[in-house]
Specification:
Elements (H helix, E strand, L loop, with lengths): L10 H15 L17 E5 L6 H10 L3 E5 L10
Parallel strand pairs: 1-2
Length: about 80
């Protein structure tokens, strides 16, 4: 789970895309999304934890029975303004 791609390809999105690529090389099915339903997933990996409503999204994933992975990389909220 990532921030929406607002047209600014920062280090956070590069890290997420590279993580997804490495997991796919291991044969793991990966979706990169900024929102959505967690019911069809076993694991949800959250990046950039200082986004709006992130705590709520993490709680929703857990309530759906997903294992949750957190990568608390920092993205300044002013970045891209």
């Amino acid at each position: 789970m990532t921030r929406p791609n607002d047209g600014i390809l920062g280090g956070d999105l590069l890290q997420i895309e590279n993580t997804a690529k490495a997991l796919r090389c291991l044969g793991i099915d990966v979706d990169v999304r900024s929102s959505g339903d967690y019911k069809n997933y076993d694991i949800v990996h959250f990046f950039v934890l200082n986004l709006p409503n992130m705590q709520e999204k993490i709680r929703e994933a857990k309530e759906c029975g997903c294992k949750v992975i957190l990568s608390p990389i920092y993205r300044d909220k002013k970045y891209g303004e």
